[in-house]
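Hi support team,

I've been running sequence recovery on a batch of backbones for a student project. Most finish fine, but this one hangs at about 90% for roughly twenty minutes before it completes. I'm not sure whether the input is malformed or the queue is just slow. I've pasted the structure tokens below so you can try to reproduce it. Let me know if you need the job ID as well.

Thanks,
M.K.
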């Protein structure tokens, strides 16, 4: 089982397992860690520093996530732009209030939207990975909701990109 679902169930004792290097993580593992760090930040109402959160994960799960690496920068960027990212998905919540969207689903949407807007990763991959996160961490049918929100957003992002490159 990958880190994607196993991290939520495994608490390692210090020195029980070797340190897991960031270089050993798959892209899916990295996405899982992004979700975990976002969830921890949300749980602390964004009052705890990201460095402290990552440090606690490093020590608690025998990880080696660098503070100056890509993963840290991605999570920091999502946290800092979370209000703008939320404004992107709110118009797609037909017949839903934002308060009804669970924390896990909201964080997966924020991450997916950030990835659509800030990376060259194919939209189908971004959406599929968001669906997999939802299957692991959100409520039972949240993956359908995530797909239904990210799909039209991905099409809007493509239009936006083609307009900006045509100018």
């Amino acid at each position: 089982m990958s880190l994607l679902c196993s991290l939520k169930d495994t608490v390692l004792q210090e020195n029980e397992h070797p340190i897991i290097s960031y270089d050993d993580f798959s892209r899916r593992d990295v996405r899982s860690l992004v979700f975990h760090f976002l969830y921890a930040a949300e749980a602390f109402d964004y009052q705890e520093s990201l460095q402290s959160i990552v440090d606690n994960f490093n020590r608690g799960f025998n990880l080696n996530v660098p503070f100056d690496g890509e993963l840290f920068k991605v999570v920091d960027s999502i946290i800092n732009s979370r209000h703008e990212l939320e404004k992107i998905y709110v118009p797609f919540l037909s017949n839903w209030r934002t308060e009804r969207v669970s924390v896990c689903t909201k964080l997966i949407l924020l991450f997916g939207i950030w990835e659509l807007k800030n990376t060259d990763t194919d939209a189908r991959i971004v959406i599929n990975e968001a669906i997999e996160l939802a299957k692991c961490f959100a409520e039972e049918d949240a993956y359908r909701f995530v797909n239904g929100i990210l799909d039209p957003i991905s099409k809007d992002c493509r239009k936006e990109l083609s307009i900006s490159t045509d100018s």
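--
Follow-up from support: It reproduced on our side and the slowdown came from queue contention, not your input. The two ends are 46 Å apart (CA to CA). No action needed from you.
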